[in-house]
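Quick note —
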Amino acid sequence: MARSEDEHLQSDAYLAKLAAQAEAAARVEQEAVRLRSTIEAAGFPLTSINDIVTTYPRLPLGLSAVLMELLPSVSELGNLDMLVRSLGASHSSIDPTPLISLFEETGSDAIRLTIANTFAESRPRLAAAWILKSLQEPRYGRSREMLHLAAARTSAPADVNPVLVAMLKEMPGHAAMGLAESGTAEEIPALQAAAQELKGWRRTEIERAIKKIVKRHRAHEGPA
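Predicted structure written out below.
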């Protein structure tokens, strides 16, 4: 049976879609090979850029520097995401400037989220002031979520806790995650008040934060 014109058009559109997907996959793979070759040329053998952290669970400073230098040359978001995630295994003394620039310049909220998570994992001391400032920048929207934890891990409690308390109104669950690490007895009333208005995972995170703060406070006070 002869196919109708609509069927031909649908078939052509499907084939064109498959061709575009194959072309995109080829671009990603070609770039990934280039990135791996550059990393290996710097003295870090690697089977794939997907295996950076499994090969180097704690990135040598030299490898972190190579990955940072590569960031501006990466055009495929999947490859960029992988490099940024890998940098989460960096030492806290790394220069975070390339990641900060990428966070500010990218149009991808997904990449911003990954950078925020990487900062929470790597705890770069030199990024502390920027993290605290960016956490309070509304234009970054939900991509700030993991900056709460990053701020708690890089700034002094006296500096970060007032900011995290203020963020309980906007992002209570993630603010509580930060306070779980940096909070003191002074923040408990604010957490309790926030919990009264919430349900689900956000309330659970707040309750968890309170328990951790109380436990930390008791350990600091010592036995009666």
